[in-house]
Amino acid sequence: MPATRTKRGIGILALALSSMLFSVFVADAHGYTTAPVSRQMYCADGTVTNCGEIQWEPQSVEGPKSFPKAGPRDGTICSGGLSRFSQLDDPRGGKWPTGAVTAGTATFTWRLTAMHATTSFRYFITKDGWTGTKPLTRADLEPQPFFTKNWNGRQPGSTVTDTVTVPSGKTGRHLILGVWDIADTGNAFYSCSDVRF
């Protein structure tokens, strides 16, 4: 009887320890856009409140890759399909802060807290007429990324800067979706940035 209790106690302790280690690993992972400023960055720096867990883990919006063929389902794209970050999918009545962008050359930046072998960084933009008053769907986005930087499995450093060409002809409010495709896992990281032309 005592041996059974000891084994059970050791098993519970091992489970608790592995859960703690997993939590630490998740909290240390992975990346988000800082330019243009992403929704998760606005939550992390306190510009936007009532964000839930994402305020402490802006880098953790990790979901299935192969977007737009696969990946997070419509309406959950900004959260990477993670219900614990669902505040990122909430349109907030179209009131997310916007950063100013113009057509032409721009610098986009990712802050990475854990580096991964990388397939690519890709950027999508919403179609004309998008108002930001409902959760993001694939139908809201132009079908192809307007910029892709291939990494061919290389591992980036803690900051990734891309010189991109922002599409011309856009006016008013839009959303830019950054997707960091990981080469050696089945996942990608998602980062939504509200912008105004």
From TrEMBL:
Keywords: Signal. The keyword Mitochondrion does not apply. SUPFAM superfamilies: E set domains. Pfam families: LPMO_10. The keyword Signal applies. CDD domains: LPMO_AA10. Coiled coil: none annotated. Residues 30-195 form the Chitin-binding type-4 domain. Residues 1-29 form the signal peptide. InterPro entries: Cellulose/chitin-bd_N, GlcNAc_Chitin_IntDeg, Ig_E-set. This is Chitin-binding protein.
